[in-house]
Amino acid sequence: MKGQKDTIKKVLHYIGKYKVAAVLSLLFSFLSAILILLLPVIFGEMIDCIVEPGKVDFTALAPLMIQAVVIILITAVFQWLQYSINNKITADIVRDIRTDAIRRIEILPLSYLDNHPHGDLISRVIADTDTLSDGLLLGFSQLFSGITTIVGTILFMLSIDVRITLVVVLVTPLSLFAARFIAKRSYSMFRKQAQAKGRQTAYINERLSSQKTIKAFSQEETSIQGFDERNKTLAAYSLKATFYSSLTNPVTRFVNSVVYAGVALVGALVVIGSGGLTVGGFTCFLSYATQYTKPFNDISSVVTELQNALACAQRIFELIEQTPQSEDKTKAALSDIRGDVEFRHVCFSYDKKKPLLQNIDFSVKAGQRVAIVGPTGCGKTTLINLLMRFYDADSGDILIDGVSIYDIPRKNLREQFGMVLQDTWVKNASIRENIVMGKPDATDEQIKTAAKVSGAHSFIKRLPKGYDTVLGTDFDGLSEGQKQLLCITRVMLCLPPMLILDEATSSIDTRTELLITEDFSKLMKGRTSFIVAHRLSTIREADLILVMKDGNIIETGTHHSLLAQNGFYKELYESQFKKS
């Protein structure tokens, strides 16, 4: 239960930002409850005005009826104000939590995002936050008014008759014990349900993004079976959570019936025996008994929803409280970059039990073209990840113009590189907005010039609205090659001091690749460039080739010198051009 208490404190911290609104909500809730509790008193007095058949005190009855109508109208206004404020508070709190979650995702290290299914993260930010919203709204709407009604009812009943009130108060703990017993077990089940829902969302996200592969390998049935397994797990947890939560209402209603029966029995004996209670007063007491027990039903329902909401809130706060990436040591920015790059005894591994890069040591002069080659999984892209500080090295240092990259703000460091990856990414926006991501103030002429250089201008002008064409969520009409051309255009527009090309032309046809390679050659002139390539024919003109294998640089040199060494590079090169 400690975790639950901590979660409640965190939720209260968010509520604390809206203290004034919360106090107003409590005030309107209190006033509504008090006014509702006044009605049974008035109704009791109205009943006492009816003495016997044919004998009704209309003089006293008329003002009481007017009072009842006025109270009902004022109560309706207070309740409307209370619900309006509650909706506003809930919407604002959920907005704040989602904002904090997204902000935390943006500063989390890539290692966290790589190791957690994206569907689960989406489920936390969207589905879990929606569930928390529902729980908060119920809590504001019913919990406060329910507590006020219970306390107020007891006070009103004490003012009428202490003996009957004692009957009510003595039976009440049964309902509280039952609710506490059920709440403990339902919370555990709701938490497991939220986790299972996150895993299911991640699975669906994975399957939807891999439909071509699934169909190509006829894995539809396997995919359905995998979903069925996760769906059954979710259904099992949901069933148990629903079972425990559904016990609350019948148990509390049973206790409420016992309370009502006790009040009716003792009240009738008091009216008949001592005569210390009128029929109107007895009717008033029965009404209070109903009003007293009703909040227990409402609160028990709220508690069930709150258990679900708190279970989801805990998952959200786990994300919000994740350790962000290390802060930049200095705010000093690099300027007038030459492009000297040096790796000094760099070691790195994604899994500390499985070393990857081991004692990487090399230097690059400004303006050199450096190609990184080797078999899949040897650490080529990892080298680039370290250079861009997507990951930090376990040991060693990386320097640019003699300055450690760990002493340079990440934003400033990444501004020095133009990066084109094998995996393309375009956002749901216009062609123009996709191109100017790295240079928002670019003019139309600069955008078109960059697009012409990359070869993207020819297909862009054929789009319905040219550069103003908005790309949909599925990017209908754009091939992978065209999307990659847009990514290349971004770099052509920025003209950064250094370049990183990680299989940058992998999705482009050979003719277009030859044209772009010529443009890249012009762009790379005078700029330090890192080229990751599997097609070794594309890196023959590199000034330095780093040959990697099993996390080590095993050979260095130019294309011709490496061929002359008759080593691993020659094997790789000849394997691509060997005739069958």
What does this protein look like?
The protein is of the alpha/beta class and 580 residues long. It has helices at residues 2-15, 19-48, 58-107, 110-114, 118-160, 162-209, 211-216, 220-272, 279-320, 380-387, 410-415, 431-435, 444-454, 457-460, 480-494, 510-524, 559-565, 568-577, and strands at 50-52, 55-56, 341-348, 357-364, 369-373, 395-400, 403-404, 417-420, 498-502, 528-532, 544-549, 552-557. A six-stranded mixed beta sheet has the order 8-9-10-5-11-12, with helices on both faces. Strands 4-3-6-7 form a four-stranded antiparallel beta sheet, covered by helices on one side. A two-stranded antiparallel ribbon has the order 1-2. α16 (510-524) links the parallel β9 (498-502) and β10. α5 packs antiparallel against α9 (279-320), α6 (162-209) runs antiparallel to α8 (220-272) and α6 (162-209) packs parallel to α9. It is elongated. The mean pLDDT is 79.
CATH architecture label of the largest domain: Up-down Bundle
Helix-strand pattern: HHEEHHHHHHHEEEHEEHEHHHHEHEEEHH
Structural class: alpha/beta
Shape: elongated
Q: Give a quick account of the main beta sheet: strands, pairing sense, barrel closure.
A: 6 strands, mixed
> Would you identify the regions where 5 or more consecutive residues have pLDDT less than 50?
none
**Kindly, what is the distance between the CA atoms of the first and last residues, rounded to a whole number of angstroms?**
69 Å
Beta-strand proportion: 5-15%
**Residues in helices, as a percent range:** 55-70%
Mean pLDDT: 79
Roughly how many Å is the radius of gyration? Answer: 36 Å
User: Looking at this structure, what is the CATH superfamily of the largest domain?
Assistant: ABC transporter type 1, transmembrane domain
How is the CATH topology of the largest domain named? ABC transporter transmembrane region fold
By CATH reckoning, the class of the largest domain would read Mainly Alpha
Helix count, DSSP H or I runs of 4 or more residues: 18
Strand numbers in spatial order across the main sheet: 8-9-10-5-11-12
Number of strands: 12
- Number of folding domains? 3
